[in-house]
Design goal:
Blueprint (H helix, E strand, L loop, with lengths): L1 E2 L1 H7 L4 H8 L3 H8 L7 H11 L3 H4 E2 L8
Antiparallel strand pairs: 1-2
Helix pairs in contact: 2-3
Amino acid sequence: MQNRLRVLRAERGWSQAELGGRIGVSRQAVNAIETGKHDPSLPLAFRLARLFGASIEEIFNDGGENGRD
């Protein structure tokens, strides 16, 4: 799954550890999501969407037909 998490985090000047603290996961979990090694759970995707003021679809893209990335 592709995502814009790294870009959104960088726009705010947050480290992976800072983002992890805001959403209740480790820095390693943030890294795994950013690099596509792990897909977030639905509750975590909703927490990220709320934090960034975006829809889940604006952050994550499954690479399907309607994907923008």
